[in-house]
From TrEMBL:
PANTHER family: M48 FAMILY METALLOPEPTIDASE, METALLOENDOPEPTIDASE OMA1. Residues 65-239 form the Peptidase M48 domain. PROSITE patterns: PROKAR_LIPOPROTEIN (PS51257). Binds 1 zinc ion per subunit. InterPro entries: Mito/Outer_Membr_Metalloprot, Peptidase_M48. GO terms for cellular component: membrane. It comes from Iodidimonas nitroreducens. It holds the Pfam family Peptidase_M48. Keywords: Hydrolase, Metal-binding, Metalloprotease, Protease, Zinc. This is Peptidase M48. GO terms for molecular function: metal ion binding; metalloendopeptidase activity.
């Protein structure tokens, strides 16, 4: 192996060896190449930008519900002592919520189309807080960094852009999308435990995802999706409920 090939490959190996951490609850080993300070700074900046772009809903029953659930869950998670948590309701009819590093959680007003009770909303917010605590954003950034480094090594060693493009496509279908789906499933499991610890019955998660399934709309094939299909999600959550119920105190 020539020096040009050896150096980037050596850096990749070093990254893989020294940058591993562990996800909460599941104990899954993670590759994190981004520091918590870096990911938090990106999360805070992105959240501020979203607040400037979307109308913020405040002082309504729904907004107070979002904040109440968020505060209750923030008290039961471990390892977030330095986070400046924010739980914001945005005027957006898309039935969605999101989380950013550093404890920034946003909920769209459109989510109330499917989250019809407080405990169903707690299912979604527990899931989003789980993304934060499991550093899923930093993990995705790290995966992309490692992938780009690997493609650079491949390009340098083969000199073929066609090969790089082909491997990049295979990596998306065979690694990136399944990885995203596994993160979603992991957030479901962690989120169920968070909601249970905060006093919300995990059984409501089945009702929530049943509502999502009933919402309809076109969905991509499973192998092209970034999220598990609703029917798969419901089946998996039903299997996880007994674990979460061990933490449940009304």
């Amino acid at each position: 192996m020539g020096m040009k090939r050896l150096v980037p490959a050596s850096f990749l190996l070093i990254f893989l060896l020294v940058s591993c951490t562990t996800a909460p609850v599941t104990g899954r080993r993670q590759l994190i190449l981004v520091s918590e300070e870096q990911s938090t700074a990106l999360g805070v900046a992105s959240y501020q930008q979203i607040k400037e772009q979307l109308p913020v809903v405040a002082n309504t029953p729904e907004a107070r519900m979002v904040e109440r659930i968020g505060i209750a869950m923030a008290k039961v998670v471990e390892g977030a002592e330095g986070f400046a948590w924010e739980f914001t309701l945005f005027k957006d009819e898309t039935p969605n919520a999101f989380a950013l590093p550093g404890g920034k959680v946003g909920v769209n007003t459109g989510l109330f189309q499917v989250a019809k009770t407080e405990v169903q909303l707690a299912t979604v917010m527990g899931h989003e807080i789980a993304h934060v605590m499991a550093q899923h954003s930093a993990e995705r950034m790290s995966r992309d960094m490692a992938t780009q480094l690997g493609l650079a090594v491949l390009g340098a060693s083969t000199g073929s852009q066609e090969m790089v493009a082909m491997v990049s496509g295979v990596a998306t279908l065979g690694v990136a999308l399944p990885f995203n789906r596994s993160q979603e499933s992991e957030a479901d499991r962690i989120g169920l435990i968070y909601m249970a610890k905060a006093g919300y019955d995990p059984h409501a998660a089945v009702d929530l995802w049943t509502n999502f399934a009933a919402l309809g709309g076109e969905r991509p094939p499973k192998f092209l999706s970034t999220h598990p299909l609703p029917e798969d999600r419901i089946e998996r959550i039903q299997a996880l409920i007994p674990e979460a119920m061990a933490y449940y105190q009304p």
